[in-house]
Here is the input.
Amino acid sequence: MKNILLYILLLILPIAVFAADFSLSAGGGGLIGYTFTRYTLEGKNTGGGNVKSAQNMDRFNYGGFLFFDATYAVLSVMYQSGNSEYNENMILSDMSLTDGTGKGFETSINLSLMGKYPFKLNEKLSLFPMLGLEYQIALKQIRAPTGRGGIEYDRTKGSLIEDRDKNNKPYPISAWNALWINIGGGGDFSLTNKLFLRGEFIFGFRLPTDYEMGALEVVKNPPMNVINPRLAGLTGTPAFKLGLGYRF
Here is the structure.
C-alpha cells in the first residue's frame, strides 16, 4: 500500500513543479457528500467456531473548504461534519453476541493535495481530471445507540465496549484519522478576468483506520479468541464541491 501512495505522489509532484503554463489562484466554498462503510471481520476461534463481525454505516457529509491552486496542483483545507446511521453485530457460529444500531456525529479537518490537468473548452470554461490524496484529522466522534434514550457518547471516553482497544482502554481521537485516495474532475467558469466559479466531483476510497485495525487485535482476546482474523470491505464517498475563486 505504501508503494501505491508513493506512485501517486510521484505522478502529482512533477506535474506541479515543472508545469510551463503556471498561474496561481485561491478561493473557497462548500461541499456535500455521502460516505458508506461496509466492513466484515471474519475468522475461526480456538474452539473451531466461526466468528463474523459486520459494520455498516451511512453518513451525510457537509462542510466548507479553502483551496490554493497552482494550475496543475490544488491544496485544499476542509472543515467537515457528518451525521450517520450505523449497524454493527458480532456473530459466533449461529449465535448473535452483539447487535448495535444507532446514530453518529463526527467532525474533522481534511487536508487534500490533488494533481489536475486543465484544458480549455472555450474562453469561459475549462475542465480538469484530478487524482490525489487526502488526510482526515478527526476532531470529534459521537454516538447515540438505539434504545438508550437518545444519550450521546463521546467515543474517546470508552463508555461503550466497542470503543475500547485490546487492553480495554479508550481509543484516542487519532484512531479515527484516515488516509483517502481521491479521483474525480472539475471545471472552472470565468465570471470576470479574475473571478471564477469552480465545481468538483470527487470519489474517495478510504484506507482502514487505526480503530478498524484495532478490532483485529480485540477479537483475539476472550471471549472471541479468534485466530488470524481477516478484515475486508470498503469505505467510499462521492462528494460535490462548489466554490468561488480568484486569479492572482
